[in-house]
Amino acid sequence: MPQKQCAIKKFFCAHPAPFGRRSVDGMPSLQRLLRVAPPESVPLPVIDPPGHHSAQKLFSGSGEIRSIGRYLDWAKTPLGPVDSWPQSLRSTVRTLLSSQYPMVLTWGGDFTQIYNDAYSKLIGDRHPAGLGADIRITLAEAWGTLGPMIERVMATGDANWTPALPSRCIARAIGKRLIFR
Using CB atoms within 10 A of its CB, is residue 173 exposed (0-12), middle (13-18) or buried (19+)? Predict the structure, then answer.
C-alpha cells in the first residue's frame, strides 16, 4: 500500500468517532460518510448572494473612486442599482478598482463609464462627474478618435491597443499635456 493511503487508513482507524462503522478494510463506508454529511446539508461558500451586491460592498476599501462609488446613487445611472448588476460587471469593476494602472470600463449602449483612481487623474476636472456617466460626453472632444475604437471593442469583444494614442486624445480633450514614464 502506498504511504499516503496508509496514512489515510491510519487516520480513519485512529479516529473512529466521527465516522462510525468501518467497512471490511477498516475504512469508513462511503454510504456512512454521506449519511453524516449529505451534500444538501453542507454549506457552500456563496459569492455575492442575491440581494447583497450593495455599493457599500462592491466599492469597499480605500481610494477616492471607491469612496465616491459607495455613495453614488447608481439607480440614477443607466447601470441601475448595484444589486441589479450582472456578476460579470461586478467582477470587472473589482478588477479595475484594484489596478494601479489607469483603467476605464464602458458598459452598455449608453457607454456608461466606471474608472479607477489612476484614470481619474487622466481626465482631470471631468472627474468625479464622469463616474457613472456617458464617456461620449466626458471625452466629447476626443470621441472622433476614441469612439470607433471603443465601439469596435464593445461590438466584437476583442481588445485593441494603440500605443499612446488614447493618452494623447485624452490630453487634448482635457487641455493638458500628459507625460508617462
Answer: buried
